[in-house]
Design a protein that fits this description.
By secondary structure, this protein is an alpha/beta fold. It has one domain: Sugar-phosphate isomerase, RpiB/LacA/LacB (Ribose 5-phosphate Isomerase B, Chain: A, 3-Layer(aba) Sandwich). It is about 45% helix and about 15% strand. α1 packs across α5. The structure holds D-ribose.
Length: about 150
């Protein structure tokens, strides 16, 4: 398995079933899925799961990450606090494609209480198949990365 095909998945309790569906879907595509849980449905705090996944990406252990909570918003905010992480919440495939092409996003967040499974899988496919365009977008991403 090529190292650049390694992807970390995490969620809170609100998104366990959708996370599992995404894990199965991308594993079938050949991704090396690192699912860091949680696996039980008890209420849990989304920041720790978002940060753990973000650290897996920021460290270079995983190339990309997909995180989920009820809205996708809280876990995205937590992940974006980790240096080097660019994570967007997406409820549509167009946005998921664009955050890769223009923003060089390395993490995707989805709200399990916002989108259904079919829509979520389309979003994931759009995110994973898109490529960063570089050029003028690279300078803008660098502005994000070099802010104090
Ligand atoms: C949990 O009830 C919910 O607050 C969480 O999943 C997420 O939506 C927070 O942003």
């Amino acid at each position: 398995m090529s190292r650049n095909k390694r992807i970390v998945l995490s969620s809170d309790h609100a998104a366990i079933d959708l996370r599992s569906a995404i894990a199965d879907h991308i594993a079938e595509q050949g991704w090396d899925v690192v699912d860091i849980g949680p696996t039980t449905p008890e209420s849990t705090d989304y920041p720790k799961h978002g940060i753990a996944a973000a650290q897996a990406v920021a460290s270079g252990d995983c190339h990309l990450g997909i995180i989920l909570c009820g809205t996708g918003q809280g876990i995205m905010m937590a992940a974006n606090k980790v240096r080097g992480i660019r994570c967007g919440v997406c409820s549509d495939a167009f946005s998921a494609r664009m955050i890769r092409q223009h923003n060089d996003a390395n993490m995707l967040s989805i709200g399990a209480r916002v989108v259904g499974t079919g829509q979520a899988l389309d979003i994931v496919d759009a995110f994973l198949s898109a490529k960063f365009e570089g050029g003028r977008h690279a300078a803008r991403v660098n502005m994000i990365e070099t802010q104090n």
